[in-house]
Amino acid sequence: MGKCCFCEVETCDSWHSYYCAKCHKLKRVIHLFSIDKVMNIVENVLIVNEEQQEENMKEELKTELTTRASTIRKCKKNKELKSIE
Ligand SMILES: [Zn+2]
Fold it and tell me: Which of 2-6, 23-27, 76-80 shows the lowest per-residue confidence on average (mean pLDDT)?
C-alpha cells in the first residue's frame, strides 16, 4: 500500500484508499463539523500556540542576553577596580 495522499506520512488503510486511517477520521470530522470550524480550531490552537512559543523563546533569549550583559559589565568593573588598586 502507498502513502496517504493527505498527510504523506502514514500508509493508506486499504488498497483502494487514498488516505490513511487517521486522515479518514479527520475527513469524517471535517464533514461532521465543517471545514471552516476545523480550520478555525487548527489555526487558533496549533498555529497560535506555535507563535506564542516563538514569542516566549524570544523573551527567554532577551532575558538571558541582558543577564549575561550585566554579568560582563560587572566583571569589567571588577577588573577596572582591580587595575586601579
Ligand atoms: Zn494520512
Answer: 76-80
